[in-house]
Amino acid sequence: MGNKVWNDKKRFIWILSILLLAAFIVTSSISYQVAHDSLSEQIEDNTLPLTSDNIYSEIQQDLLRPIFISSLMAQDTFVRDWTINDEQQPEKLVRYLREIQNKYDTVTSFFVSEASRNYYHSSGVLRKIEDVSNDDAWYFRVRSLPQDEDYEVNIDTDTADKNRTVIYVNYKVYDFEGNFIGVTGVGLAVERVKKLIDLYQTRYNRRVYFSDRQGNIKLHSSGFEGATTLQSSAGLEKLATRILTSPSASFSYHRDNRTIYLNSRLVEEFKWYLMVEQDEVQAEKKLLTTFWINIGLSLVVTLGILFIANMTIGKYQRKLELMASTDKLTGAANRQVFEDYFAQALSRSVVDGTVMSVLILDIDHFKQVNDQYGHNIGDLVIQSAANVLKSHLTDADLLCRWGGEEFLVLLANTNISQANELAEKMRESVAAKSIKVNGSKISVTLSCGVAEHRKTEKPEELVNRADIALYQAKAQGRNQVVLSY
Hints:
By secondary structure, the protein is of the alpha+beta class. 50% of the residues lie in helices and 24% in strands. It contains 13 helices and 18 strands. The strands form four sheets. Strands 3-2-1-6-5-4 form a six-stranded antiparallel β-sheet, sandwiched between helices. A hairpin with a 4-residue loop joins strand 13 and strand 14. Helix 1 packs antiparallel against helix 8 and helix 10 (366-373) crosses helix 11 (375-390). The radius of gyration is 53 Å and the shape is rod-shaped. The chain starts with a helix and ends with a strand.
C-alpha cells in the first residue's frame, strides 16, 4: 500500500511538472510570437520610416547643400554676364570659383562654357571639352537633360585630380533670355559622404545606402557588402521594380535565412533613393533574451511550486495514510493494515527462524456499558483499554482494533507461552483500571484467545484459531485467557 501511494505521488508530481512547464513554455512562446509579430509590424510601419525621415532631414543639411550652391552659381549674374561678354579676363571667373570652393568647403568648383567649351576650375582653365571624349560625356548628358530638369548628381573622377572620386552637382546655366550657355557646379569628396553614411548607420543602428532611379547602388558605407544594383541584390531582385516606381515604400525580404526590413524614399533633389535597412536579428535579440529569461523564471517558479506541492502533498499524504491505517478513536492500527503488516512480519519470521503469536482480546459485557452509560462513555472505555494494551507492547508489536470492542495483537518473535504471559498481564491491568463517571467507577474485564503461528499457516487460519480460543474464554466465564495449540 505504501509503495502504491508513493508511486501515485511520484506520478502526480511528474504530471504536475510537465503540465506547469508546458503551460509556461506555451505561454512564453505565444507571448514571444505575438511580440515578434508586433515588433515586425512596428519596425516596418513606424520605426524604420521614422529613421528614414530623420536621415532624410540630415541629408537635407549635409548633402543637399551642394545643390543649393550650384543653383546659386547658375543664377549668379556675374557668371552669366561674364559668359555673355565673350569670357574676357578668365582669371576673374577662376577667382570666383576659388572663393566659392573656399567659402562652402567643397572639393571642387567649375564652369564649362557652351561657346568656348573651356573647362574653368578653381585652379585655372584646365582644358576644352571634346565631343569624342568619354571623360566629357557628362557635359553633353547634362546639356540634353529635359527642359524641366536643371541639374544632375553624378559620381565621377575629379577632373583636376584623377586619384579622387567626387560627387558632382552639374547645373545648367541659361542667359537672361533662357538660352543654354554652359554648366556649372561643385563637388563633394565621396569619402566625406561615406563618412556621413557611416555616421548615420552608427547613430541609428541601421544600414544606409543610395540607389539611383535605374537601381544602381551609388553611395554606401565603407563596410557595405551588397551587390552593385538592386536587381542583382539577393532577396531584392523581385522588389526592385516596386522600389524604383514608388516615391516611398516599406518592404521586408529574406537574405541568408534572415528577415530584412527595408524603407525606401526618393530624394527628389538628389534624384536618388535613400535605402534604410534593419536586420531582424538585431531587433530579435532582446525578444530572445526576454524569452529565455521567462523560461528560466518559469523553471524557477515551477521548481518552487513543485517543492511546495511536494511538501504539502507529503503532509497530507502522511495524514491520509495515518487516517487510512489508524483507528481514529484509539490510535491503534485498523484492520486494513493487518494483512500488510502480517505479511512483512511473517517474512521476517521465516528469514530469522523466529516464532510469531496472535492475541485476540474482547471487552466483556461491553453492551451493558453502552446501554447503561451511553456510547460516549463506551468510547472512553475502549480508549482506556487500548491505552493499557499499548503500554505492554514494543515497537515490533502491532495493536489493531479488530472490531467494535475487540482488539488483535500481533507479537513478533514471541512463542505461545510468552504470549500467554503477556495476555495475562494485559488482562490484569485492564481489570485494575477504572474510569470515574459522575461519581461512579466503571471497570471492565477482558477475555483473550492466544495462538502461535504454524508453518505454512495462512493469516486467516491463525486469526481463526485465536478467535475460537477467545470464544472458549467467554464460554468458560470471561475474564480469562485461553490458548490454542
